[in-house]
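sorry for the late reply, my laptop died twice this morning and i had to redo everyting from scratch. anyway the thing you sent over, i finally got around to it. pasting the sequence first so we're on the same page, its 482 residues, then the predicted structure underneath. double check i copied it right bc i was rushing
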Amino acid sequence: MTRVLTVDAACAAAHAAAPAVAASDLPTRAAWLEAMADALDAARDDLVPIAVEESRLGVDRLTGEVGRMTGQLRLMAQVVREGSFLGLVLDQALPDATPPRPDLRRMNVPLGPVAVFSASNFPFAFATIGGDTAASLAAGCPAVVKPNPGHPRLADAVMAIGQDALAAAGAPAGMLTMVSHDLQAGIDLVVDDRIEAVAFTGSQRGGLALARLAAERPRPIPFFGELGSVNPVFVTADAARERGAAIAEGWVASFTLGAGQFCTKPGLLVAPRDESLRAAAQSAAQGVGGQGMLTEAIRETYLRGLSERLESTGVEVLAGGGWDAATDTVTPTLVSVSIDAVLADPALLEECFGPTSILVEYTDEKQMLDLAEALPGLLSAGVHGQGGESIIAELLPRLVAHAGRVLWNGWPTGVAVTWSMHHGGPFPATTAAATTSVGAAAVNRFLRPVTWQGMPQEILPVPLRDGNPWGVPRRVDGVLEI
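ok and here's the structure:
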């Protein structure tokens, strides 16, 4: 049975549920998230076959992704119980101060109903009850999900389990709803005045179109979009000399993972021109077989972007791939280009979503600094080094200026769901560089601070009352109380 509502019905239900969801105490709200996690884990063996059919991803990958989905829900339950996301700050009255200071108490409150757009490349972790949905519910905001058209049956199944689990746990009706997967439903959802924020993971073109709608409403709302990133990895001359072949093999494994359909895929490897590194990368890429892409539309967009790259001046094909119509699979395409050619053609710094990457070759390590200065906003950037190179001290600050996550001797694919993770970055990686869509801090996107001044105890929200009734971290007269 489909769980799809009209946009009007879904927004009405979310709007009606918002006060009760916002007023829920922390243990109750955490229990709602855990109830969904338990129910989804129990249904894993039923859900994975549907996801395999609709996404062309493998059983092992999707089975692990169910664990990531439920792990995100449980992390958010921890965030809720711990309580520091409320941002409690109390400044008690000082009537004898000059000027007198009133009693001031600040707390973060939920924004209200959030529109969540599901991504195609993570059918569980970034979809119907993925990270954005978990974060909005943890913040106390009802979620209205716009499912991805690539997996409609899976969206129905996951939504049914989530809604039934919430109902059994006593959550307000309307806390979690879903609209149609068609384009117009998404547009109508963003412009509905009952929606207070939008969370989106997808293409830059689609994200910017929705962001404009959110900004041009009579009452604009925040739009949190993850729009893609080229995620460069820089290799020092010393690292290339000591372990160039291993670095090349790790790079190919990373950019071909999941047919290159990860927002964190390393789209550039910036390294010295070295024949052994080249040969190792070429051999590794040629050893990867054909891979199915998520949808025909994604495949066609990838092939167009790949064709444009191959037409760029100075591009040399090291391992040619493309689409095999008979098997409907793509094989990796690996190209090389000089660092000067990349600086002359900024289009090479744009994401190409699929199994391709560029070996950007330099003859002088200082050239890496010029490229780092020219980078667009990034989800991640990395360095492979030995540790003693003087260039590292100059390179790292430039990467920090452009990226939300900076890696050392690692690969950006694989984003840990933790308290410290930041999965974001300056535009065009995201539309809100100060926020993350993965990890505990994701909840902060859907909150805003309010200060209560001179309020009697019985009128104040419970967490702000004297005695810390909820027992959560807060700052009182400048002193942090854990």
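The chain is about 40% helix and 15% strand.
thats about all i looked at so far, will dig more tmrw
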